[in-house]
Design a protein that fits this description.
Number of strands: 11
Strand order of the largest sheet: 1-9-8-5-4-2-3
Helix content: 25-40%
Order of helices and strands: HHEHEHEHEHEEEEEHHHHEHHHEH
Number of helices: 14
Length: 374
């Protein structure tokens, strides 16, 4: 079976972990945590970063930093992972789900504009498949109404909007280092802070609501409970693993882009008529090869294609289920239709993509898909 994903190891992860074990400093904010954060800031132009145990944690920290309260409205895409919504639901926000664009799964700026009200406190964008949302239009809307922007950049490492690393554009952003991401440590995340006024409070929230970080810098003579917070910082063992991946980011990305480009060439060459649609990369966006997907014409067609691929020894998978129609939220959403989100729920299919996928395997997967349609 060709798997959907196979986590890539650079070969340096164990050596880094051994260093941590020998140092006897295994908990959070150790040497490798600091080295990771510094490398993200220097390599990708990130302003201030804090490693977290997950992207979910980074999103939850963002909601706390923005002082989201019951009654505040937060606009976000329906076609996303539940963590995007949970982070704000936990603060009592009113979730206002927006539809995707017709030609790609990213949130529609037209929908955002229609949904804005005086109660809107934040706009959360998700850069689906690592492809940038239309940030110029979204920034203009946010600025005109004094609204914060949070970037869910879980899939967007090494991806850019008009030359700017995704995640560096909004007020706050969250990245994921889950094993399915381009670089990973099994489970892990990163909070990126683009406004200095959030710096100190972010450290406090991450350290269980204490000013422990200030204490270790010698800025206070003791530390205590000064705000709400939780234990959001990861073990230095995870940071050591991740550091090996960040150091190898360019090499990992070269292999992922090779796979993505071969899928793109194979399927473009073989597609006939309206068999399926392929990813759209707008002019303002780069492609970090996080994902290659096709959009089938119906749920039934996708189901049959998944079965065809599985019978051929290929694991391809669908993705998000629209949150506005989920069992938890459907009654709160009402009857407003989100047809594009529902179409991606029913029709989008993700193909295997990882650095060790060979050209021969990509060709075989492509051939199997084209045979299904022909």
């Amino acid at each position: 079976m060709i798997p959907f994903n196979r986590p890539y190891l650079t070969g340096n992860e164990l050596a880094n972990i051994q260093q941590v074990l020998e140092s006897r400093k295994i908990s959070g904010d150790g040497e490798f945590t600091k080295k990771c954060q510094a490398l993200f800031e220097s390599k990708l132009g990130m302003r201030k970063t804090l490693l977290t145990t997950s992207c979910t944690d980074a999103l939850e920290m963002s909601a706390i930093l923005l002082n989201i309260q019951p009654g505040d409205e937060v606009i976000l895409p329906s076609y996303t992972f539940v963590s995007t919504a949970n982070a704000f639901a936990l603060r009592g926000a009113t979730l206002v789900f927006a539809d995707s664009q017709a030609d790609q799964p990213n949130i529609s700026p037209d929908e955002i504009e229609r949904l804005l009200t005086p109660k809107t406190k934040a706009i959360v964008v998700v850069h689906y498949a690592g492809v940038a949302c239309d940030m110029d239009r979204i920034l203009a809307l946010a600025a005109a109404h004094g609204i914060a922007i949070v970037e869910d950049a879980a899939q967007a490492i090494d991806s850019f909007h008009n030359g700017r690393q995704l995640g560096t554009i909004g007020d706050l952003s969250a990245f994921s280092f889950h094993e399915t991401k381009n670089i990973m440590c099994g489970e892990g995340g990163l909070l990126l802070i683009n406004k200095p006024e959030y710096d100190l409070r972010a450290e406090i929230i991450r350290e269980k609501g204490t000013n422990r970080s200030s204490f270790f810098r010698g800025e206070v003579d003791k530390y205590g409970w000064v705000d709400v917070g939780s234990s959001f910082l990861p073990s230095d063992l995870l940071a050591a693993f991740l550091y090996a991946q960040v150091e190898s980011l360019d090499a990992i990305q070269a292999e992922r882009r090779r796979v993505w480009a071969r899928y793109d060439a194979n399927l473009k060459q073989g597609i006939k008529g309206d068999w399926f649609t392929m990813p759209v990369i707008p002019e303002y966006a780069s492609n970090n090869a996080h994902m290659f997907y096709i959009v089938c014409r119906s749920l039934d067609e996708r189901t049959r294609l998944i079965a065809k691929l599985k019978a051929a020894g290929i694991l391809a998978v669908f993705h998000y289920l629209s949150l506005h129609s989920s069992p938890y939220f459907a009654a709160s959403h009402g009857t407003r239709a989100l047809p594009n989100s529902d179409r991606y729920t029913d029709c989008l299919l993700r193909l295997p993509l990882f650095p060790e996928l060979t050209n021969e395997q990509v060709d075989y997967i492509s051939k199997t898909i084209l045979e299904f349609y022909s």
